[in-house]
Structures are given as C-alpha cells and as structure tokens.
Amino acid sequence: MPGRSLSVPHALLALAVVFVWGTNFTIIRVALDEMPPLLFATLRFAFSLLPAIFFLKRPAVPWRELAAYGVLIGAGQFGILYVAMNGHISPGLASLVIQTQVFFTIGVSILINRERPSGLQWLALVVAAAGIGVIVWHGGGDATPLGVGLTLVAAVSWAGANLIAKRGVGANMLAYVVWASLFSVPPLIVMSLVMEGWPAIRDGLLHASLATWGAVLWQAVGNTLFGFAAWGWLLTRYPAATITPMALLVPVFGMATSALQLGEALPAWKLIAAGLVLCGLGLNLVGPQIMRPFRR
Fold first, then answer.
1. Of the candidates 166, 142, 192, which has an alpha carbon nearest to the alpha carbon of residue 65?
2. pTM of the entire structure?
3. What is the gyration radius of the CA atoms in the chain, in angstroms?
4. Could you give the CA distance from residue 122 to residue 103 in angstroms, rounded to a whole number?
5. 180, 184, 164, 188: which is closest to 236 by C-alpha?
6. pLDDT at 1
C-alpha cells in the first residue's frame, strides 16, 4: 500500500469525486419534488446494475462482502438519506452532516485494531458534536431532529461500506459497485412498497419529468458508477485516514451549490455549525499525527 500522501493524479481523482458528490445534493432535492425518495433510490441502483452487470465479470470477493456493501450503500446510506432530504433537512446541511461518516469510519477502524483514541480525538468528537447540536437547535425548517438523526444513520452506513470496500484490494471497483447494486435494489423495493405504497410509486413513474429522469441517471452514472467505484478504488490503495479527509470538501461544494441554485440561506448559525463540524472532523484526522511525537 502506498504511503499516506496522495499522488497528484489520485488527489485530483478524489477531488473530482467529492465535487460530484457535493453538487449532487441540489440535484437530489430537485428530483424529490416529483419522485418518492425510496423509489428514487431504487431507480438509482437499478440503473447502476443494468445493463452493466451483463458486461462486467463479478469481482473476486466473497458474496457476503458484496451483499453487505450493497445493502449499506443502497438502503442504509442513500435510502435513508433521501428520506431525510424529503422535507426534513436542507441539501446544504445534509451534505455537512453526512460527513460525520469520517468519524464513524475511523472510529470503527480504531475499534477493530483495538487502538485507544487520544484525548485530542475525544476533543474533536466534542467539537463536531457541538456543531451538530447547533444544527438541531437552530434548524427550524432547514433541519428537523428527525432529519439530522436520519442523516447520521446514513453516515454510519457509509462508514460501514467504506470499511468493507477496503477489503476488496485488487478487485475491479467498477464491477464491485455494479455487482453490489444487485443487493441494493431488493431492500429498497421492499422499503418503497411498504413505506410509500404502490399508488405513490405509480404516480412517481408516470409523472416524472425528463429532468427528474436525468437526475436518476446522474445518480447511477455520476455518483454510483464513477463516484463510488473511484472512491472504493482509492480506499484499496491508501489508508482510510488518507482518503476520508477529502470528503470534508463535500459540504463546501454542497452548501455553495445549494445557496447558488436553490437560494438556501447561509445565516451565521449555519456557518458556525459548519465550522465546528469541519474543525472537529479535521482535528480527529490529524490528531494521531499531532500526538505521535509526544508518544515517543
């Protein structure tokens, strides 16, 4: 595995991924005006699966890993995130709160490796939690407690998927994402039928505009096939602590795009919350490096 520093080409690839992910929150919000969230998520992964699965060989990883990744990314991350964004949290704040996946990814890694978090990392958690608290306190129509809670659950799911993807060293990550989508679609279909019902599904399919169908395709091609394949590929080549900090740029793109395209307000409390969360996440990531000289 390479060292901790990203090469320039790989850094640009990671930057392209986080740009696509960040600007995508505005696209999601627009599409949800015409399509139920779980149906939207189902179509995203259905188009990620078909027809690509007929042209890509199944990667040489256990079925259980493909299944776990598919369920976590499909139903766990995006199914829940889309529900949260359907009136419970604004695109800009969703792009911020979802980045707590950095904490969860590194936190689970620490548990697996039986490491003890440093005092600086605990401080980082408190700082980021304060930012989330500001969002809950001031959220109003921008973020309800339910919306924040659902987005945090989505972040936990993303963290779990990150750790599973790291085990796919040497696998074709595009094929990995496509074949994992085989396990994303069934639970999303069931969730959509149970929670949204057939009438809402039928109306969503019949009345969606070309712009909404374009958003569905962009979710599949831009975000899933490109974004998660590239992200997974990078995770197999670098430590999680090297790749995951790049995701801190997602809310920068997300909040800026939402403000420019949707007119989402950026009052002082929202900027303070963003600063606290990003500072906490950043401190959590650099904490081990800062403390290393004092442990010698």
1. 166
2. 0.84
3. 19
4. 11
5. 164
6. 46
* pLDDT(2) > 60: no
| Residue 237, both tokens | 């080549």
Give the Cα separation of 5 and 25 in Å (integer). Answer: 29
Q: How far apart are CA 197 and CA 200, in angstroms?
A: 6
**Listed residue (38, 161, 15, 6) closest to 98, CA to CA:** 161
Question: 276 Cβ partners below 8 Å, 6+ apart?
Answer: 127, 128, 130, 131, 134
CA distance 219 to 216: 5
How long, in residues, is the chain?
Answer: 296
d(CA 229, CA 154): 19
Structure tokens, 271: 């900027």
218: amino acid identity, one letter: W
CB 228 within 8 A of CB 44: no
Amino acid at residue number 179: W
The pair of structure tokens assigned to 168 is: 């796919």
Q: What are phi and psi of 89, to 5 degrees?
A: -155, 140
